[in-house]
Write a structure and sequence with these properties.
512 residues, alpha+beta, 3 domains, six-stranded antiparallel β-sheet, two-stranded antiparallel ribbon, 43% helix, 12% strand, binds adenosine monophosphate, binds magnesium ion
């Protein structure tokens, strides 16, 4: 479907209710999305649209496409590019901002929640610096797939409402087809927003931003004795939870800069992100992360580092005296390690089928991970197959089943040292006995937390490569399959399988 560029018309189907645009002018730059030549809608998320009160007919129609392409500014929108700063790979940049994205406005969903509606790849803004304001289609489709996959895994994330091909090309190392992603978020406010005003010593703006966030995202903090401290504590808690969940599914964000660290606790800004195949904590996919700053195993400590920057930006609000502010910030940050450790053990304990935490469980998990690391055992497959191993404990039980036997052989096949593996397995099985729950129940619960299917990097890359050739079927198939990641579906075995050596993707690119 090709559309001619048209003038601005009303699209009352989107009922905007904008609050960020009511903040003072120094919070953003008013800027409209730049129209594109020949938009074509590639994906639209009807259930999410419905959650935002958008009618399926409208979502499928030409008006929605024009809005999602940035060719029409719907009535009620107040498009703007947000101002923010950020630490990029540890270096502070006092002004970043939305250089290729435009916040159209906010929508109150049928769930009563206020959602940001954002176009990414929508053209140049006053924050574009040297950039072209555009996004290649590949990263747009990657974000669409991976963010929706994260949502289906139950992990807080921005969502994808639509992906549009622009009909224009974007020059990177080579010319690539352009795309625009419509993203939906609880709020796109980042740690970098606070750093922006802190760096300018604009304490008034800092307080207004903090009040805005409290009102919108953390209303309970308003009741606290020190609301700004309560805000800091809330953000620490949500980041600890979020990163624990990333570690649980083997997700590597790739660019954990403070400008990509969401105050709403969502996974934000999908760039060179990827899921682990073989487990190794030093795994890095991002082409630009040459030092491994954002390697899989470093994510928890980087999360803490980012929170420290957040706390630093909040200092002028925490207390009148600087000493007292620093003390409060430090106390709050010091809780992170325990909060993360608790959240992480909740996640990993559930992955191992354990309902209560015991002293020896951490060693059990650590020893499994160490063994996996030594053999680069597939992270997703190993944990998924452990459910069969839990059930197959009793020889009269699942072991007679040929599928179960194949699963167990595949599991054992992940490890070179059979004796080491069998020792660990025996230890874990003894621990499961102590759970005093039926093994079938434990196995079923394990399958609810250990996905059968993740957005395997090689499959994502294949889907993007096919889309570049004009074939959207692999993208659509993968997207459809990822909606129910915990359901074991034999016809999806190929999508679920780890990459063969020649299929392995070792690097991903931001495409910025
Ligand atoms: P990212 O690494 O994608 O989080 O982006 C970091 C900063 O660079 C943000 O301020 C982006 O808005 C900006 N940026 C990234 N790509 C572009 C682009 N193609 N044009 C303009 N600004 C960009
Ligand atoms: Mg970013």
């Amino acid at each position: 479907m090709k559309m001619k560029q048209t003038t601005v018309i009303a699209a009352p189907e989107i009922r905007f209710d904008n609050s960020f645009a009511a903040l003072p002018a120094r919070f953003y730059a008013k800027v409209e999305p730049q129209p594109v030549k020949a938009p074509e809608i590639l994906a639209v998320n009807v259930p999410l649209g419905e959650q935002l009160g958008l009618a399926p007919d409208w979502l499928a129609g030409p008006e929605a496409m024009a809005v999602f392409a940035g060719n029409r500014v719907p009535e009620g929108a107040q498009p703007l590019a947000m101002a923010y700063a950020g630490h990029q790979f540890g270096h502070f940049v006092p002004q970043l901002g939305d250089g290729r994205a435009v916040l159209l406005g906010e929508v109150i969903g049928t769930d009563g929640v206020r959602w940001d509606m954002h176009l990414k790849g929508a053209g140049r803004t006053p924050f574009s610096r040297g950039g072209d304001g555009r996004a290649p289609l590949g990263p747009v489709l990657r974000e669409y797939l991976v963010s929706e996959a994260m949502h289906a895994l139950g992990i807080p994330t921005t969502r994808a409402l639509a992906a549009v091909a622009t009909g224009e090309s974007v020059l990177r190392e080579e010319p690539l087809p352009g795309g625009v992603l419509t993203r939906i978020s609880r709020s796109l406010i980042r740690v970098g927003h606070f750093q922006y005003f802190a760096a300018r010593e604009d304490v008034l703006a800092l307080a207004m931003l903090a009040d805005y966030v409290i009102d919108r995202l953390v209303p309970a903090a308003a009741e606290a004795e020190n609301p700004y401290l309560a805000l800091l504590e809330h953000v620490i808690a949500t980041q600890a939870q979020l990163i624990a969940q990333w570690q649980g599914v083997g997700f590597i964000h790739g660019v954990m800069n403070t400008d990509n660290c969401s105050i709403a606790g969502e996974t934000l800004d999908y760039g060179p992100c990827a899921f682990l195949d073989g487990y190794h904590p030093e795994t890095v996919f991002s082409y630009i992360d040459r030092m491994g700053r954002y390697a899989f195993g470093r994510q928890p400590e980087i999360g803490k580092w980012n929170l420290l920057q957040f706390a630093g930006a909040l200092l002028p609000l925490l207390a009148r005296s600087e000493d007292q502010a620093v003390r409060l910030a430090q106390q709050a940050i010091e809780t992170y390690d325990d909060q993360f450790a608790n959240a992480y053990w909740d996640v990993m304990g559930a992955k191992l089928g354990l309902s209560e935490k015991r002293e020896e469980d951490q060693a059990l998990c650590r020893d499994l991970l160490k063994m996996m690391q030594d053999d680069l055992a597939d992270y997703t497959l190993t944990f998924r197959l452990l459910a069969t191993a839990a059930e197959g404990q009793d020889d009269t039980n699942g072991m007679n089943d040929t599928n179960a036997a194949a699963d167990l052989a595949a599991l054992e096949g992940q490890f070179a040292d059979r004796n080491r593996w069998r020792d660990w397995l025996a230890r874990w099985r003894r621990r499961l006995q102590a759970e005093q729950r039926p093994l079938a129940v434990i196995a079923e619960q394990m399958r609810q937390v250990n996905p059968f299917l993740i957005a395997r990097n090689h499959r994502v890359e294949q889907a993007i490569a096919a889309a570049y050739r004009g074939d959207l079927r692999p993208f659509e198939m993968l997207h459809e399959a990822l909606k129910q990641p915990f359901e074991e579906k034999p016809h999806l075995a190929a999508l679920a399988a780890p990459p063969k050596p020649h299929e392995q993707v070792r690097q991903t690119f931001c495409g910025t």
